[in-house]
Design a protein that fits this description.
alpha+beta; eight-stranded antiparallel beta sheet; seven-stranded mixed beta sheet
Length: 603
């Protein structure tokens, strides 16, 4: 039967098309906040990194009440590296708001999330956002969405989608772009009319599948999912069925439902609602909580496997412990194993020789978000170069992850973009041009995407837009050339001196400035030639008692290049490491001593 007083709706879109801002406006429209309440922008991006990067990383559940109907809203990440998060949370929804930029139309990321929503048979409501932008073309955006849905194999029913036109920043949604209302009411009405109510069995046996796992330092693991049938009571005995088929009994300690921006404890919850349960000790994604008397089996949740791995090690730098409070290998291991509990889309295991912990994720961004979180917690550690996760085919041949990459670039730079993609192992599959832009689609090994964005931006004067996501495992495509330029390696430990840097900047690009702490084996710059060179960054001017002709020459240094975490991970080679501390990101050689490196090269 239908639960008419509930709607479960996911919000899906490309990065930056306005999902989180739209949710803000829906919260205001349903009077969750007082009229004069001070609320920060993008209230759902509560994590520091989400606010700084301007992207959603973790999916969030909120609910609003409108005309006596509870609308559960699931805000999903828009980035492919967090696709594991999207795939799972769509299991809780009956429909989705697809938000599309009125100027840009659907982007590659939209395809990725929309394909998952269509596969699950969700009812799609298209929200054309940013209609107030100059050059906005709402009708053109709707046509592009229709074409995309046809391409993705949508059913006739899904293709007959309702459309609403909005400007989330200005706080209005309209059935027609030329209407003059200034509120979100038409969108709320459309959610109630168009998104189907959950079709559940209220009187059936209990059935709940956990789709996301939260973690509380007080309560332990919190399983979140949608009740498919029956009623869930606190203190109830349930049967927990693991994806492996293992079964055991457990007691539900507390039941929460989502209300406004938080959770509220309730004595019981009815089928159709999204609930959070406490009391299942090792609750995991895909676990089924059901009635011990008449168990219900459900489809297992498939989580896509990680494609890129990196090894975390305790820092062995001469500067260890100066900036971070937590530097031990044991604490690093404990922290990563704690992450393993709550982060299902990562695979975290200790190496056999106990030298480090291997963390596998969906891409460099996915891995760097974890590193950034740990660095803010006071950890100091070092990581090697990310490497792709290979598989072996049935015939024994080596398989590697292949990605689909799309590049949007102005017409005059399309040749340069194709050249850069070709050198990274990309094979062009499609090319389409309009008056100003060229849209290119490539099939490229995941290895080739390392550092690709930087090279592409350099070749196209910062005009190209690159997006790539995992497609499939394919045959290994042979060795790839690494970085052409060698590094400038510091020969001793001490502070960099402007006089030394002045002579070194003529031979390449510097990564350090005057006064920066350096140590033997640290990479202080990039040489203009191939092959590493050992340099002295501490060399100061010899002071004699005679006046030098160059004494009054002012030293002018070019500002050093600073790396973000992702750029540093993509820049290093196999014999190099990134040292991460709460204040610095340094590049270094794995073997710090020049003598040791020479010995290793001879072997």
């Amino acid at each position: 039967m239908k639960q008419d007083n509930i709607r479960n709706v996911a919000i899906i879109a490309h990065v930056d098309h306005g999902k989180t801002t739209l949710v803000d406006r829906l919260l205001w429209a349903s009077h969750v906040f007082r009229e004069n309440q001070q609320v920060q922008e993008r209230v759902l991006d509560s994590n520091d990194q989400e606010r700084e990067r301007g992207i959603t990383i973790l999916s969030k559940n909120i609910s609003i009440n409108y005309k006596g109907v509870k609308i559960n809203i699931i805000d999903t990440p828009g980035h492919a590296d967090f696709g594991g998060e999207v795939e799972r949370v769509l299991n809780m929804a009956d429909g989705a708001l697809l938000i599309v930029d009125a100027y840009e139309g659907p982007k590659p990321q939209t395809r990725f999330v929309l394909s998952h929503a269509l596969e699950r048979g969700l009812r799609i409501v298209v929200v054309v956002n940013k209609i107030d932008r100059p050059n906005a073309n709402p009708e053109g955006a709707v046509d592009k969405v229709f074409d995309l849905m046809v391409e993705l194999g949508a059913t006739d029913e899904q293709l007959d989608f309702p459309v609403i036109y909005a400007s989330a920043v200005n706080g209005y949604a309209r059935l027609n772009p030329t209407d003059n209302n200034n509120d979100m009411i038409p969108l709320l009405d459309m959610i109630i009319e168009q998104i189907p109510a959950p079709d559940v069995d209220l009187d059936g046996p209990l059935a709940l599948q956990i789709c996301t796992v939260d973690h509380s330092s007080y309560e332990g693991r919190i399983g979140v999912g949608r009740l498919s049938s029956g009623t869930l009571h606190e203190k109830e005995q349930v049967l927990v069925i693991k994806p492996s088929g293992e079964e055991r009994q457990a007691q539900i300690r507390k039941v929460y439902t989502f209300e406004n921006l938080g959770k509220v404890e309730v004595p019981d919850a009815a089928a159709g609602d999204i609930v959070a349960v406490i009391g299942i000790e090792d609750a995991d994604i895909g676990d089924i909580l059901t009635s011990p008397d008449s168990p219900v089996l459900m489809e297992p949740i498939a989580v896509e496997e990680p494609t890129m791995a990196v090894v975390f090690e305790a820092s062995s730098s001469p500067l260890v412990g100066r900036e971070g409070e937590i530097v031990g290998g044991r604490q690093l291991k404990e922290r990563l194993l704690r992450e393993k509990e709550s982060n299902i889309s990562m695979r975290i295991n200790e190496l056999e020789d106990k030298s480090g912990i291997e963390v596998a994720g969906r891409g460099v961004l996915h891995l760097s978000v974890l590193m950034e979180t740990m660095r803010r917690e006071g950890f100091e550690f070092q990581v090697g170069r990310p490497r792709v996760v290979y598989k072996t085919a049935e015939d024994g041949s080596k398989l590697e992850p292949i990605e689909e990459a799309t590049v949007d670039v102005p017409n005059e730079y399309s040749g340069k973009a194709i050249e850069v993609m070709g050198t990274a192992g990309g094979i062009m599959e499609d090319m389409a041009s309009d008056e100003t832009m060229t849209h290119l689609t490539f099939r490229i090994p995941s290895r080739g995407t390392m550092g690709l964005k930087t090279r592409l931006l350099n070749a196209t004067h910062g005009e190209a837009m690159l997006f790539h996501h995992f497609k499939e495992y394919g045959p290994y495509s042979g060795e790839m050339a690494g970085r052409k330029n060698g590094g400038m390696i510091a020969m001793s430990t001490g502070k960099a001196v402007a006089y030394a840097l002045d002579t070194l900047q003529e031979r390449g690009r510097l990564f350090v400035g005057p006064g920066d702490e350096c140590y033997e084996g640290m990479i202080v710059g990039e040489s203009a030639k191939e092959g590493d060179m050992v340099v002295n960054v501490e060399k100061s001017k010899q002071l004699g008692n005679q006046r030098s002709s160059s004494a009054d020459k002012a030293i002018q240094l070019t500002p050093p290049i600073t790396f973000t975490l992702e750029e540093a991970l993509e820049y290093i080679e196999d014999d190099e490491l990134v040292e991460i501390t709460p204040k610095s990101i340094r590049l270094r050689k794995r073997l710090l001593s020049a003598t040791d490196r020479k010995k290793a090269n001879k072997k």
